[in-house]
Structures are given as structure tokens and as C-alpha cells.
Design brief:
single chain; alpha/beta; 2,3-Dihydroxybiphenyl 1,2-Dioxygenase, domain 1; 4-stranded mixed β-sheet; 2 helices; 16% helix; 36% strand
Length: 135
């Protein structure tokens, strides 16, 4: 593995992935069911969500907005997103994912590099991985 900076000298800062959805309220409800907290929501009278945030209680957040028609400069194709979320409680998140009926991409398992986690798809096909590996 090649890195340009050693982990001892590195200072991490927030990275906010952005995903576009046809139905942002459904995506927000789904993420809330997994354990995210609702953050900012900026929409208009037509129901278009221009910006919203969902906050992970262990740190970090993700931005969600309504997919445009025709696609805008920040739109992504449906189901093309992939997000990894670090958690100290993968089994609890796994239980919540199962109660939501999430489609499993990779079932809960322990990895040879020391992580425990799983991957699922959200209501529009984006992949979400949850695990203990924090780098």
C-alpha cells in the first residue's frame, strides 16, 4: 500500500458525501430508521429538496437532495452511490437494517483485517456499508 502521508501526521476532517434521490423524504425516513438523526432540510413549495443533511450519531453526515430532470451538475444516476459508515455498534445497525427490510449486499461478517460489518442497499439502490474499521 502506498500513501503520501503517514497516519501519525494526518489530521482527518469531515467529508460529506452527497446523494440525489427521486424521493428525499423516503430516503431520510429510511436513514432515520438506521440510526441517523435528521439535520437541515431546505425544500420549496413544490417538494423539491435543495439541500438536506442526515447526521450519524458517532460522527459525520451525508447530504441528500432531489434528483433534477434534466439532471443537474450534482445529480448522480439512481442507485450509483456508495457510502461507508464507521460504527462501534454494527450489530445494532444490522438489526435495524433487517427490521427495515433492507436488501443485503454483503451480510454481517468479521473481516481478516479486524473489521465487523455489512453492506445493504437503500430505498433507491445506493449501497451503504457499516463497519468497525475506522482506518
Amino acid at each position: 500500500m502506498t500513501t503520501s502521508e503517514s497516519s501519525e501526521s494526518r489530521t482527518d476532517h469531515d467529508i460529506w458525501p452527497g446523494l440525489t434521490y427521486d424521493d428525499v423524504p423516503a430516503a431520510r425516513a429510511w436513514l432515520k430508521g438506521l440510526g441517523f438523526a435528521e439535520g437541515v432540510l431546505v425544500d420549496d413549495e413544490s417538494g423539491t429538496v435543495h439541500h438536506s443533511e442526515m447526521l450519524w450519531p458517532e460522527g459525520g453526515r451525508v447530504m441528500l437532495s432531489t434528483r433534477s430532470d434534466p439532471p443537474g451538475e450534482f445529480d448522480s444516476p439512481r442507485g450509483s452511490g456508495s457510502v461507508y459508515v464507521v460504527t462501534d455498534q454494527p450489530d445494532a445497525v444490522w438489526e435495524r437494517a433487517q427490521s427495515l427490510g433492507a436488501e443485503v449486499v454483503r451480510p454481517m461478517r468479521d473481516e481478516d483485517y479486524g473489521s465487523r460489518g455489512f453492506s445493504i442497499k437503500d430505498c433507491e439502490g445506493n449501497r451503504w456499508s457499516f463497519g468497525t474499521y475506522a482506518g
